[in-house]
Amino acid sequence: MRAEQLTGPVAHHGEGPCWWDGWGGLKFVDMLAGDVMSLREDGSVWRAPIGTVAAALRPRAGGGAVVATERSFALCANDDLSGVTHLPDVWSDTAIRFNDGGCDPEGAFWCGTMAYDETPGAGTMYRLSPGSPGQDPQVETMWGDVTISNGFAFSPDGSRAYYNDTPTKTIQVFDHDPDKGLTNRRVLVRIEDERAAGPDGLCVDGEGSVWAAVYGTGEVHRYSPDGRLDGIVELPVTHVTACTFGGPDLRTLYVTTTAEGLEPGAQPEAGSLFCAHPDVTGQPTLPFRG
User: Fold this and answer.
1) How far apart are CA 260 and CA 138, in angstroms?
2) What is the phi/psi pair of residue 283, to 5°?
3) How much helix, strand and coil, in percent to the nearest 5, is found in the chain?
4) How many angstroms separate the most distant Cα atoms in the chain?
5) CA distance readout (Å), 249 to 14, 243, 245
6) Can you give the pTM of this predicted structure?
7) 176 with 154: CB under 8 angstroms?
8) Which residues are catalytic?
9) How far is CA 180 from CA 49, 159, 184, 253, in A?
């Protein structure tokens, strides 16, 4: 399947696409510009500056959004991303930044980090829990020894969570229980393609299959719940970063790309937003309940 180009190269480092009807559609980030991008019906893009970095975002159940910035979280009160409250920095080391994340079925926002220079094992996975009424959300450290934290999504029944640490070239899976949390971490897929830096962002469709943007290949792969490759979406640029389902019927797969690491002009479409129309439906986005 070939992807269709929806926009020009509107982002230097496009990432983190997320569809939410309350927003009026799709948002994604131009990460290192610190902007959240909103796709309009006419194909144009509107930018909302959030900070020096805008790494990942999810809708808040009561309206607005939560955004992972460089070293902290921002809570936007409104769907147009106005009314921004920046929470305190989670750490002080300026060599580390947030990179990607998603929400669990209980309404917490998980987001992992990486070193700007990609130092092995320098990253951490954090969880932002909604907190008690009248209190700020609470940040917990979940695990460390991460190099480039990417992708976090759940199976339709909530029993599995999927996660990527890109340089491992593996898609990992956990068992999930609301009381026990994430357990039994293991490898679901090992990507052998020599072109691949590894799996970047991911999402899970309504049948429980995992879609992963495979950085360096110009492809998005679909893997069945048992790890079998059963679909490929091809793009004209190599650095594909993340994907999500959206549209009124959740049948459009949106794919972000980046020009980061490419020679200027080498791939003119890099940084554009693409889409495909596979014969499968996605899942509604899990919101942050804080």
Assistant:
1) 33
2) -110, 150
3) 5, 50, 45
4) 51
5) 24, 16, 9
6) 0.96
7) yes
8) 200
9) 37, 11, 11, 32
